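Figure 2 data, in text form.
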Amino acid sequence: MRAVLSKAPGGPDTLVVEEVMDPRPMKGEVVIDVKAVGINFPDTLIIEDKYQFKPQRPFSPGGEVAGVVEAIGEGVTSVRKGDRVIAVPGWGGLVERLAVPATSVIKIPDGMDFPTAAALIMTYGTSYYALKDRAQLKAGESLLVLGAAGGVGIAAVELGKAMGARVVAAASTNDKVQFALEAGADDGLIYPSGKMDKAAQKELSGELKLASGRDGPDVVYDGVGGDYCEPALRSMDWNGRYLVVGFPAGIPSLPLNLTLLKSVSVIGVFWGAAVARDPAGHAANMTDLFQFWSEGKIRPRISRTYPLERAHEAIQALGDRSVMGKVVVTVDA
């Protein structure tokens, strides 16, 4: 079978497509005939050894897959051959066939196609866990989403609306803000690109607060980091919850005195670890997400698709931060 492999640390141009042995299911495993692979920001990091996990090489990137169960290992009763499923292996997904623990697969609802399924579980799973379990977002509250046009950002916009919040979408260009507004955001704000001095940060903080309502946002969903962290924190309302999701703009230094003055909670969001620690909670959240999808409240927005042999272009596009919504690689065996 074909596999996209990282053989040495480097950018997307270092990836190669090679023939490798087909997997066989071990006890408790299933083999998925992969049909679609969702590409996410960790894929840009893991191939450069900049992610918190460093797989032994050669390995394939690709953290979420959708496909059909092709083979079943000993002791597996939860799924059958031919079932349409999704899984989040973390890496290893940019292949034609993949062995995963049977306990990690979830059946796809009828009517959901493979690209949609591959674009849903990681971004919407992360954002729903963040908003529901970590921030305990309530109907009527104000939610500010930084990086609102990215994969997790646009998911947070849709989910915030589905949960009854007033959503303000912040992004770096007018096109990205418009993209978020079309996804349901109530208001939008363009923030500066690149480094900001203290004066620019203070100005941005005032704009974020004004857009979020008189008292500022109750919840900030920060999937950007960098110089945007402090302005967003300064804009927050009393007893606000600041969600730390990602750092494509860099890891910020947080002025902790602001958390004291505003009684703000800073909350880390590590969805992958939460799934491993609480599989029952993850399953319940996925049930909610499938229900939101069936009701038309969420819709993965796939902006680009690539074939397996061009997977490096998919990862490059995400790394350039020019993509709005999700990027998906389709696999034709």
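Caption note: The radius of gyration is 20 Å.
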